[in-house]
From TrEMBL:
Source taxonomy: Eukaryota, Viridiplantae, Chlorophyta, core chlorophytes, Trebouxiophyceae
Ranges for domain TAF6 C-terminal HEAT repeat: 17-92
Keyword Transcription: yes
Keyword set, alphabetical order: Nucleus, Transcription, Transcription regulation
Recorded family membership: Belongs to the TAF6 family.
Organism of derivation: Chlorella vulgaris (Green alga)
A Gene Ontology molecular function term of the record: RNA polymerase II general transcription initiation factor activity
One Gene Ontology CC term in the entry: SAGA complex
InterPro entries for this protein: TAF6 (IPR037796), TAF6_C (IPR011442), TAF6_C_sf (IPR046344)
Annotated compartments: Nucleus
Protein name in UniProt: TAF6 C-terminal HEAT repeat domain-containing protein
Gene Ontology BP terms: RNA polymerase II preinitiation complex assembly
PANTHER family: TRANSCRIPTION INITIATION FACTOR TFIID SUBUNIT 6 (PTHR10221)
Length: 96
């Protein structure tokens, strides 16, 4: 469900699915075993859709949700997270 929602343009029909996924990412204590797959997938999605501002916003929201989750240890995956976040920020600056 998470992967499908994050790969849809702008998080689905009206964004409710994306909001639900971000809420799950921010609170679910059982996501730690999925981080080796989830974090690189987020980074790949950013790289593929740099020209779609709405999708970049969704990826930033998902990343923020993971960072807010107190049950997750993201330090081993920071080498995936930082380039993706910086790419979003730089893409946003170049558009403005």
């Amino acid at each position: 469900m998470v992967r499908r929602a994050l790969q849809q343009p702008y998080g689905g029909a009206d964004g409710l699915q994306a909001q639900a996924v971000c809420a799950t990412l921010a609170t679910d204590p059982g996501l730690q075993p999925l981080l080796p797959y989830l974090v690189p997938m987020l980074a790949d999605e950013v790289g593929r859709r740099l020209v779609h501002a709405g999708h970049l916003q969704l990826m930033l929201s998902a990343t923020h949700a993971l960072l807010r989750n107190p049950h997750l240890r993201l330090v081993p995956y920071i080498h995936h997270v930082l380039p993706a976040v910086l790419s979003c920020l730089l893409a946003r600056i170049s558009v403005e």
